[in-house]
């Protein structure tokens, strides 16, 4: 099988049609159709069920999709590793980071990496931890930050930070001077939360389930500055890592009566050989890791 034909086949499968695939690949649609016909003739199997304008994978096509993704990703990995084999003057690191850490933990690390290795292209993707796991699996990023309490079996993880989620309140809130806050007291308030898929939201969903309550969600947004403004003006409370509000005099961070600790790790596909550029980035993150805090 030719790699080009596999690439065209995967594009049709993912885009749901020959025309859409051709547009994505920036080639003429007949070239895509010809490649698929050649692949089907070579395999002596139908890969797509063509009904009027709808194109769907056959069961045989679904099997080939899984292999095609692995094959094309392996080729891409090999090409990148060969380019980077002898030097770190070139290369690429694609890393996914949740917005909270991307804004308040990683900037010094990213700048230090860029300063040490100016020839390496650094692509940073912001997304929730669940989305990042999917992107790692699909090969869209090389690695990502996940909460590693229950890491997926297909990922290799290396912890770099253990941090406590805190209840965040305005300084004039009645509970602002408390040593800690109970789940009951927290969930009695109107909440400002991230959208689903982010570890910030998953913490709330988990502890609300354990407490047997339904959160009273007044605002949903992934914009941290907006969350802080809403809370500081008294329109709700939230949970964040303490690092997010440590320099904000309008907000206070209070631990939960039952502390909520998070183990944050860098993760990549298990069995995947990291390129030199990626391994160098991992080494820097672990080198700069904050000491593990006691529970």
Task: Put the structure in a nutshell.
43% of the residues lie in helices and 24% in strands.
How would you describe what is shown here?
The protein is 43% helix and 24% strand. The protein has helices spanning 3-15, 18-25, 29-43, 59-84, 99-104, 107-116, 129-138, 183-187, 199-211, 224-232, 276-287; strands spanning 48-51, 54-57, 92-97, 121-126, 143-147, 155-170, 191-193, 217-220, 238-241, 251-269. The chain has a 6-stranded mixed sheet. α9 (199-211) links the parallel β7 (191-193) and β8 (217-220). The radius of gyration is 24 Å and the shape is elongated. The relative contact order is 0.14. The mean pLDDT is 88. It holds the Pfam family HTH_1. Residues 1-58 form the HTH lysR-type domain. Belongs to the LysR transcriptional regulatory family. InterPro entries: HTH-type_LysR_regulators, LysR_HTH_N, LysR_subst-bd, WH-like_DNA-bd_sf, WH_DNA-bd_sf.
Q: What order do the helices and strands come in, and which of them pair?
A:
Elements: H1 3-15, H2 18-25, H3 29-43, E1 48-51, E2 54-57, H4 59-84, E3 92-97, H5 99-104, H6 107-116, E4 121-126, H7 129-138, E5 143-147, E6 155-170, H8 183-187, E7 191-193, H9 199-211, E8 217-220, H10 224-232, E9 238-241, E10 251-269, H11 276-287
Parallel strand pairs: 3-4, 3-5, 7-8
Antiparallel strand pairs: 1-2, 5-10, 6-9, 6-10
Protein name: Transcriptional regulator
Family: Belongs to the LysR transcriptional regulatory family.
Keywords: DNA-binding, Transcription, Transcription regulation
